[in-house]
What does this fold into?
Amino acid sequence: MARGHQKAQSQERNKAKQAALKKSGHNANSQKKAAMKALTFQCVICKSMMPDPKTYRQHYENKHPSSELPEELKNM
It folds into this structure.
């Protein structure tokens, strides 16, 4: 366990590291926002999000086989 001067140094390093992380804006919230921007297609039945029409079509055919394809997927 660090005592005295070592403890103070460790706390200073940790503060500097935390400040650098905060300044860079790299956190879970920003990552979630960026990921949500990439998910543009939403399933009309289960409301799950997909990044592209090909994945959407595969999802629809596998998860909802008894349902008819939506108009946006029939054109592809």
